[in-house]
Amino acid sequence: MTSLAIDGSSNISGNSAGDSGGAIYVDWYVNTLTVNGSSNISGNLANRSGEPWVAAG
């Protein structure tokens, strides 16, 4: 995946994960992550990282 876009009025909130990436988890490289418009990423929880997480490898 070369790019990931959260567009328009997307809402990613109130999610949880047992390890990483309560909001977004990508298991490879992402060159560009774009959050635009009135999109919201908030209130996500994980044991390691609640925000977007990229595990490159």
Topology:
Elements: E1 3-6, E2 11-13, E3 16-17, E4 25-26, E5 32-35, E6 40-42, E7 45-46, E8 53-54
Parallel strand pairs: 1-5, 2-6, 3-7, 4-8
Please explain how this structure is put together.
The protein is mainly β and 57 residues long. The protein has one domain. 0% of the residues lie in helices and 39% in strands. The protein contains no helices and eight strands. A two-stranded parallel sheet has the order 1-5. Strands 2-6 form a two-stranded parallel sheet. Its main location: other. It is found in: Cell envelope; Cell outer membrane; Secreted. One of its GO terms (cellular component) is extracellular region.
Descriptors:
secreted; mainly beta; signal; cell outer membrane; 57 residues; 0% helix; two-stranded parallel sheet
Summarize, please:
Helices cover 0% and strands 39% of the residues. It has 57 residues and is an all-beta fold.
Element pattern in H and E: EEEEEEEE
Shape: flat
Main sheet record = 2 strands, parallel
Number of helices: 0
Average pLDDT metric:
78
